[in-house]
Design brief:
The chain is mainly α and 182 residues long. It has 8 helices and 2 strands, in the order ααααααααββ. The protein has one domain: Tetratricopeptide repeat domain (Serine Threonine Protein Phosphatase 5, Tetratricopeptide repeat, Alpha Horseshoe). It has a two-stranded antiparallel sheet. It starts with a helix and ends with a strand.
Length: 182
Amino acid sequence: MARAGLILFLVAALAGCDDGVDKDNPFAPGVSQKGEAVDPMLVGHRLMNAGEYELAIKSFSRAAVDQGMTGEIMIGIGSAYLALGRLGQAEELLRRAIETDERAPEAWNNLGVVLMEQGETAEAGQMFRRAFALDNGESDSIRDNLRLAIEKTENPVYDQVEEQEFKVVRRGSSDFLIRKIP
């Protein structure tokens, strides 16, 4: 009895599903043109939040097809490269993003993180200073990154080798913070 009820339910649910389908066409139906596409930038930022950096790069690249390679798109892709540890690619894109839009504090901050990871502490400090100024000191992560860069620049240890490990921590859609690993 329950099986017959399930079959009737499925038949009723599927009734009318084949409206508009060409029965002579052996191929699957195409993409519906009725719906609206979701903004690929929004999708890219959501994928970054979910830790899906490769997919975020693809989404930001789709946005670049429609909008051109804007500063925001370069920051998004550069931030995804940074999260994946592809520092050379991240540095190149973040520098290009800064050339496009010098007023984006997240680009300056993330470039500073890349430079810190590469051991370029002095230049990283300059990037963090610029990000801090553009952000009006409102971002805790930029302030913390600047503080760490200043500390490393002012207190270099030459006589004693001290191994410190740092971890890049993602905060927000395209903001990174450098933390010491305890």
